[in-house]
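Deliverable D4.2, example record:
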Amino acid sequence: MPEPPEYQFPFQDYSVTLPPIPVESPVYAGARSAEKSARIYDGGIGEDEWLSGIYTSMIADPAQDRFYEDLLSRLRGIRADQELDDDEYLELVTVFVQSIDYENLDLVHPKYPIETYVDGRGDCDDRSMLLAGLLSREGYRVSLLYFDSELHMGVGVDCGDEGYANTGYGYIETTNVTLIGIVPTTLRGGTVLSSDPLVVPVGNGTRIFTRCNETRAIWEKLKKTESTLTESRSGILALESRLRAEAESLELQRSNLDALLARGNTRAYNNQVPAYNAAIRSYNQLLEEYREKSDRYNTLADLYNFILLHQHDRKRIFSSCSDECQGKVGSVQLACGSL
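Output generated by the structure prediction step:
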């Protein structure tokens, strides 16, 4: 059996290190060699039913009880040290699983959660089953969301509203570190989620995630900022073009003035100086406008990049949005993940 890796990942404003937990070798070996497909002899059992049965049985296999308890014990220790509330703890567990290395396999032969942990890698269904298994054991109301047309799987968590595509669950993408309740614009390989998922409830948890309103506000701010940056970039490029043209014109006027002085034609020189000075004032005003717009653009770009690079820190992102994000919390009515 391979040695489980030491997991390190950023969460909120600090770095988390999870030393390897002891894993029972026979359990891991049994998971590796187990049959991971179903032979259907009862024609009355639909595909959705037996597919749900496969995934839930792999998550809930009692042979993994000690594995779950040992891993959750480590995560609970971090929760206690950092004084995390229920929402933040759910985010901690989620970011841990999202940070596992991605492995492009298939949904035909999924891994047991213990395999994904020990191997230190997995694809969408492997990581989704691990996350759903951990969260359900911590009392959260979660499900698997299986997209047959896209051959993709995510996790659903109750956000207290209609959820993604009216499933009753907010969407969690497990193949990248992303905010809870938000569906990525595109998945790996350019795939876009468009089909209605098969919902596979996992466990009997009742806890919900109460911050989907915040993640939606953050996502709305991100999209608005992206649009503003695109528009501002066009305006800045236009200003740059005008500045170059005016600078060339000023250089030509300056050369003409110097030539007049060299020839001793002070009358013509004095007549042209006011127009030259006016052109300089116009250029300086345009330059000031360019600098102001560039500063605003850079400030927005910093915010945009901060949001993208800190998906592991919903709390700090929301704070960085300041009053604008917080003002949207009460007014945004979209379902989790529907933006």
